[in-house]
Amino acid sequence: MSAPLISFRNVARSYGAGEAEVRALDGVSFDIRPGEFVSIMGPSGSGKSTAMNIIGCLDRPTSGEYLFKGIPAQGLDQDRRALLRRHALGFVFQGFNLLARQSALENVELPLIYKGLPAAERRALAREALRKVGLEGRESHDPSQLSGGQQQRVAIARALAGGPEVILADEPTGNLDSARGHEIMRLLQALNREEGITIVMVTHEDDIAHYAGRLMVFTDGHLTRDEPVKERA
């Protein structure tokens, strides 16, 4: 069995102090291995988003340990955490977060600029990422010329372009109708199976969660279920 890619060791996260203290996570432990597709579910305030933010190096545990490839990520300084996000993690959000005045190709290129890649290499990687999500021929379209599902495909291509080890997807179908949502999930499922990319996804929709191979459920800051699921074809 491969070594864990992501590990939580008795992770707790609190906000506030005294009577105002909120314990968003309370002693959570789990491992995620390379190539897994994990869905995280739970009601509002359950801790699922806090867990995702810690995995994405957007937050730190109050206590316990978060390891990425065996390295304690919460101990990294701000610059090294930014490098980890830039080189190992890709992010997909509910709201697409595309730049309205930029083409699909330019939107996908954006994180590659921050990585300092030459223009020709950026352009080639962005074109290949758009091809992988089924948008070959739409490179010059700006977001207003694309459907919601196509915009989310651009966002996924942007996450893919830098060659991440993990894609973190936060409610990736939340702004889409049912048909487009299932299209996006079949795309993520294919990227996981064919490209071997580890995917960690937060969703509140049970049918969407079952595109993954593993389901984790949070309740009141605790991991209350962690089980394999039969993936949707």
Automatic annotation (TrEMBL):
<keyword id="KW-0067">ATP-binding</keyword>
<dbReference type="InterPro" id="IPR027417">
    <property type="entry name" value="P-loop_NTPase"/>
</dbReference>
<dbReference type="GO" id="GO:0005524">
    <property type="term" value="F:ATP binding"/>
</dbReference>
<dbReference type="GO" id="GO:0022857">
    <property type="term" value="F:transmembrane transporter activity"/>
</dbReference>
<dbReference type="GO" id="GO:0005886">
    <property type="term" value="C:plasma membrane"/>
</dbReference>
<dbReference type="GO" id="GO:0016887">
    <property type="term" value="F:ATP hydrolysis activity"/>
</dbReference>
<keyword id="KW-0997">Cell inner membrane</keyword>
<keyword id="KW-0472">Membrane</keyword>
<dbReference type="InterPro" id="IPR017871">
    <property type="entry name" value="ABC_transporter-like_CS"/>
</dbReference>
<dbReference type="InterPro" id="IPR003439">
    <property type="entry name" value="ABC_transporter-like_ATP-bd"/>
</dbReference>
<keyword id="KW-1003">Cell membrane</keyword>
<dbReference type="InterPro" id="IPR017911">
    <property type="entry name" value="MacB-like_ATP-bd"/>
</dbReference>
<feature type="domain" description="ABC transporter">
    <location>
        <begin position="6"/>
        <end position="233"/>
    </location>
</feature>
<comment type="similarity">
    <text>Belongs to the ABC transporter superfamily. Macrolide exporter (TC 3.A.1.122) family.</text>
</comment>
<keyword id="KW-0813">Transport</keyword>
<dbReference type="Pfam" id="PF00005">
    <property type="entry name" value="ABC_tran"/>
</dbReference>
<protein>
    <submittedName>
        <fullName>ABC transporter ATP-binding protein</fullName>
    </submittedName>
</protein>
<dbReference type="InterPro" id="IPR003593">
    <property type="entry name" value="AAA+_ATPase"/>
</dbReference>
<keyword id="KW-0547">Nucleotide-binding</keyword>
<dbReference type="InterPro" id="IPR015854">
    <property type="entry name" value="ABC_transpr_LolD-like"/>
</dbReference>
<dbReference type="GO" id="GO:0098796">
    <property type="term" value="C:membrane protein complex"/>
</dbReference>
